[in-house]
Amino acid sequence: MTGAISPQASRHAITGAGLSAVASAKADIRKSKTSRWRAAALMTLNLFMIAHIIQWRVMGKTISPIEPSETMQTIQGGFVNAGFIFFSLAILATLIFGRFVCGWGCHILALQDLCGWLLKKMGLHPKPFRSRLLVYVPLIAALYMFVWPTAYRLFHNPENAPLIPKFTNHLVTTNFWQTFPSVAVAIPFLFVCGFVTVYFLGQKGFCTYACPYGGFFGLADKLSPGKIRVTPACNQCGHCTATCTSNVMVHAEVKQYGMVVDPGCMKCMDCVSVCPNDALYFGFGKPTILVPKSNALKRSYSLTWPEEVVGALVFLGSLLAVRGVYALVPFLMALGCAAATTFLTLKMWRLIRARELSFYRFNLKSAGKLRKAGWAFAIFACCWIGLNAHSGWIRYHEFLGNFAFQKIQVPDELALAQVNPARWLNSTDRENILEGKKHYDAASRAGLFVNSEALPKLAWFEYLLGNAEQSIQLLGQAASYQKDESKALSLYYRGAILNRLGRYEEARPSLDEALAERDDLILARQEKGESLWQLGRHDEAVSVWTDAVRRNARLALVNNELAGAARSLGKLEEASAHEKQADQFTPNDPFYHWMLGRRLQDLGMTDLAEKHFRQAEQLRAGNEMPHGR
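Given the sequence above, the corresponding structure tokens read:
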């Protein structure tokens, strides 16, 4: 057995005649001239990508990433960006010319080709892994990425979720790397989606079993009139199939259909270039969807049907275990990991049961006895599968912790009105907090990495339980791992809690850092004003609050604070104007009025505080209010 799982997988052909043809073709195949042009195109693409990043770093802004994944932002939020335009044009081009964008314009495919070339230099020729079920993964992943979010939004909130969002221009960005993983994640991502998938699944392993964009390109290819076609000069020598790195049985398909119908064909043109009779060419004609399938080719596969079902379950389990674990692993990397895990699991099962087994040129098991290569493979496979299982355990606790966090009912504003929010917690909230904290603690103790998204949630649990000091430490730790908006929010909550504790000198730098990360975070600006006011820097506080109101005039608390500040300075007319503005946007809710009263009382604005306490008493209508102010 070679790179695939079953003994039959080493066969390169799907018909009896093709088997001998391909086997005899390998020795005298001429080199493809097209491969050099394609390599040059892919290298140029990567150079353009590097230049794009350099230009952003130098100038501070650039064209938004030209990545198909950016289309999700357009679909969900209406943000028209360069990625959406590129993906739309690529789909349109595929509908006409076939799936050539993958072969000539994908950096991940370039990485796979490089890995395949390096393996061949080491004497290892990647062999294709063939599965009946896993070939549907790219299309399912594409529907999940691009269709499911819209469908979920429409069914979950049909009144406020229009089918077509309001489109806005996002062609230029100052935060080029916002939607990309960090370098620490990108390196293992490229290793998994490049070397690992090529080594175990074949040279286009990631394209075949993981790439969601390929799912859409494959569909478009079936509608395309552009195909690799054949002339009567073809003598079924099999050079085309032996050269193809996309796992396409070219010689058999052109014989059966007069063209290549496999949507995995990426129009690399190597088959055309190596044909000794120049019998193959790219041309236009009938698309695949119109080709009758009454005499469909019989294909050989690497797995039996029971193994296919087990493999599909292993793939799903691995995907759920790895995706998003530690808030690090992106969806595409999780797909690549799941494909490799499926192969290794099934291969290990064969290693246990079979008497003879090989992989590439390595003899893993002979006469029922494991060889050195077999032990090495078994150790690697067990470590990989064990790491997947460990990730699943961590992900299980993270999921339940997140679930408990989402069920907490107490509003943030009410909880942050005083240093000990325990009085606002009902029994259900308290149970959810304790349950969520238990799961986050378990994930933290057993985890190999820090989950920067779980830390602020754990910090909030600690704060609600009255452990403000522990909450501050966790928020500071979270901010050290986070970036952009997430970092700004952690720093804001840290500053707000420090303000409640009366540690205003410590709160102000935290809030300044939050505003440096996200200038439009109005709540951080309001809290900064409170820090300055409590430190006796009243003019600066008023300036900060005024800036906040200028950005958003509907802020009830900030308008009340400006009213209180104007009163203290004897500016009664200005105070009245701010108070009216505040009353206009204050919710008619007793708890909100109590929160306003509490915050104003802490600032020494007692007259306004008493006003809101009285309104809270009038509106409470049987609701239990705190016994102290």
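The first helix runs from residue 16 to 25. Try to locate this feature in the token string yourself.
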